[in-house]
Design brief:
Radius of gyration: 18 Å
Structural class: alpha/beta
Shape: globular
Helix content: 40-55%
Strand order of the largest sheet: 4-3-1-2-9-10
Strand content: 15-25%
Order of helices and strands: EHEHEHHEHHEHHEHHEHEHHEHE
Oligomer: single chain
Amino acid sequence: MIGVFDSGYGGLTILRELRHKLPEADFLYLGDNARAPYGTRSFDLVYKFTLQAVRRLFDEGCHLVILACNTASAKALRSIQQRDLPHIDPSRRVLGVIRPTVEALGAASSTGHIGLVGTPGTIASQSYNLEIEKLYPGFRTFTHACPMWVPLVEYGEAAGDGADYFVRKDIGALLSQSADIDTLILGCTHYPLLLPKIEKYVPEGVKILNQGRIVADSLVDYLRRHPEMDAKITRGSAVRYLTTERADKFSTLASLFLGQPVDAEQIVL
């Protein structure tokens, strides 16, 4: 199975695109919903929680794990790749969502002025800024933390008037930093659920990157370049869901994200 991890429900937007691109592959989704959100937690705690989840997915038989969470990718991925994988199993892989998203900027932006909205943790980590500077030295990154967006999604208020207020305010604060922003990164996997509101307040001509599609395309390319990993993936079109909170609650909310019934299992990390 391909493991997919998120601190909550947002990673389901990544899973949906992964299943669309790799319909025959088997997937195992793990949501650490009982300890969400990760966005305001310390680096050390996010690293600890993420490593626990990765180990569990490895124990379940996953050789490849996608951190479908911007905060985990920003705060834990590099440490897990460099510090832990060599001791756990050098043949296994953990990949994140930040690098492939940044790689897509070259074809998307003509001005080199990039807007980024994300959780406080992702913005504070400056992981996107550093990756963009590394790949595109001439680009400028403008960021804005949106602490209310995840709660709006997880409490089912993405279509409500409250979402309009916060999305309008936060998009305005971001765009006020530069009139030349022509590409917007949604730096949290929950944010696609707010896309109708975001599109409403983002000026015409500003591209909004679809992170799920970008990550899915990147994984397809990764497996093409690493046939030894591709050969390990089972292909029965199956998907399992694990959660650290009540299974019935997760199943209900996950069904809203995916548009289909979900039957989850509760676990302890």
